[in-house]
Design brief:
about 110 residues, two-stranded parallel sheet, 4 strands, flat
């Protein structure tokens, strides 16, 4: 997939894995607690997990349904799409884009 590129640190597999872990954390089957593959230690910043989804939910809570123009949303710099997927639960159409090739590639897989 993405190869290490000294010119652009945003196009590395390592960063892609971090973004995927923050946007889509795994859930342990025994405890139903979010666990990120990026942060498997006791002092992991678990409050960062699903941050894009929570920001989309905050936006939706501040915007009454009857005030949504065109029922469309735009997510600029969507990374791996956590906020775009969340917005798609409330908007009929969501446009999301990012300039990082590896993020866009993964986004199109799902």
């Amino acid at each position: 997939m993405a190869k290490s590129n000294d010119a652009n640190p945003y196009e590395t597999d390592n960063l892609l894995q971090m973004y995927l872990s923050l946007n889509y954390p795994l859930v342990s089957q025994d405890s139903q607690t979010p666990i990120s593959t990026m942060t498997p230690h006791e002092d992991a910043p678990t409050q960062a997990l699903c941050f894009p989804q929570r920001m989309a939910q905050l936006l939706l809570s501040l915007m009454p349904e009857n005030k949504r123009m065109n029922n469309r949303a735009l997510d600029i710099g969507c990374a791996v799409g956590g906020s775009a997927f969340e917005l798609s639960t409330s908007f009929q159409h969501v446009e999301a884009f990012d300039y990082r090739c590896c993020f866009v590639f993964v986004y199109h897989l799902y």
